[in-house]
Amino acid sequence: MAFSEQHIIKSSIEIETTPEKIWDFFLNLEKNYTKWHPEDHVFWRWVNGKPLEVGTKIDSKEIIQGHKAGIKAVVLETVKNKKIVLGLRWPFSIVCPKIEWIIETKGSNCIFTAITYYKFSKAFLWFHNINDILNMTKKHMDEEGENLKKLLELK
Questions:
Q1: Phi-psi region of 52 (alpha: psi -120 to 50; beta: other; left: phi over 0)
Q2: Cα–Cα distance between 22 and 103 in angstroms, integer?
Q3: What is the mean pLDDT of residues 133-152?
Q4: Domain 14-154 architecture
Q5: CA-to-CA distance for 109 and 16, rounded, in angstroms?
Q6: In this predicted model, which residue has the larger pLDDT, 53 or 131?
Q7: How many helices (H) and strands (E) does the chain have?
């Protein structure tokens, strides 16, 4: 019998831009974070390292549907212009071990895909409505994709 359930939330959007412009957006996330989702994002800071460098720590805050989330993470993996993997730090890692941002070329456009991995223990499921969490996350990720598209297609 499994002690936890894994859920993967995925959101993809086609953007009329280059992989380099998407990468640059995330490289400069400290200044772009609140523009990316003005209603929800409060701040993003690169701590103890350079932006998008493996091992660099992140301190951020967002408010999603009234729920405050002070998120601490570390850059686990990067492939320039293609992939960024963030590992959430304890205690967040218990429920959400990692987040991935994938950049793929499609003709002269790009597909940006955000993936959030959840792992809910059976005990957690007793006290929380899992569908609310998953729906809220998907909605937020879809909004981030739409906002990224608007921001990058303006340039």
A1: left
A2: 8
A3: 94
A4: 2-Layer Sandwich (3.30)
A5: 5
A6: 53
A7: 4, 7
